Amino acid sequence: MTQAQLDESVDYLIKRGFEAPEIGIVLGTGLGQLVDNIENPVEAHYNHIPHFPLATVEFHSGKLIYGTISGKKVVVMQGRFHLYEGYDFVDITYPIRVMHLLGIKKLFVSNAAGAVNLDFKKGDIMLIEDHINLQGGSPLAFKGVSEFGERFVDMSEPYDVDMRKKIENIANKNGISLKKGVYASVVGPQLETKAEYRMLKILGADAVGMSTVPEVIVANHLRLPIVAVSVLTDECDPENLQPIDIQEIIAVANRTEPKMIQLFKELILEI
Q: What range defines the domain where residue 37 resides?
């Protein structure tokens, strides 16, 4: 990644009409319906954007969509990148840097995750308050990172407190049950063993997934306020663990997504 490559990506998108978006949104597995709420959408497929990685997961559609939601200009990533697809951390977070250079001032992130906290149930939404990085690396661990921002990034409060409070108030007002907790990010793509779920619980994780943390680290590197939610798609009880069904995970994400969309739309209105 070079500044010239980032500039080339940004120039392409500006020529496509991606003009001064205020909010960037990253959509997780099974969470694509938000794009139906975008007014006057303009699309750019990842394989057409210079220097962009390509989405390889079959249920990630792989495009940036620009338009308006709740009266504000947004740019939405429909389909993200993961370590388990063979990308490195710089690839995974390249789109965050591009959206930042386009002008976004806030970043919203969503993911599908497994509930490690057994008080949380399938179909719940969890507001991420903190995270544990178990992916074995960092998107800032490369030569020349200081050309893009401070090398040693403070992570004492990686998720924006003000936006978290706003999203809690929105949930209360609309009668949406909103859990709060710690998200653990692992490499994947295999799901966890019973012993690994026990370990995650001991470490203090409430939910586990295979994304989000690299994007959050880079957002903090860019001093970009971020809010993130997990849609909990399965219950990870090591004492009663059932074989996983990816199609069911996606179905639960689809059923829960309207609540997440409501939270995001009203948060966009308020900020």
A: 3-270
Q: Which residues of the chain have pLDDT under 50?
A: 59-60
Quote the pTM value. 0.94
Residue 140, amino acid = L
Q: What's 234's domain CATH number?
A: 3.40.50.1580
Q: Please list, residue by residue across 72-89, b when 16 or more beta carbons sit within 10 angstroms of its beta carbon and e when fewer do.
A: ebbbbbbbbbbbbbebbb
Given the DSSP bridges, would you call strands 23-27 and 39-45 parallel, antiparallel or unpaired? unpaired
Q: Determine the Cα–Cα distance for residues 57 and 47; give it in Å rounded to an integer.
A: 14
Q: Are 212 and 183 in contact (CB under 8 A)?
A: yes
Residues 166-224: tens digit of each pLDDT: 999 999 999 999 999 999 999 999 999 999 999 999 999 999 999 999 999 999 999 99
- Transcribe 149-196 into DSSP letters: S-SS---SS-S-HHHHHHHHHHHHHTT--EEEEEEEE---SSPPPHHH
Give me the helix-helix angle, 89-102 and 213-221, nearest 10°: 50
> How many other CB atoms are found less than 10 A from the CB of residue 20?
11
Residue 40 one-letter amino acid: N
- The number of distinct structural domains making up the chain is 1
Q: How many CB atoms lie within 10 A of CB 204?
A: 13
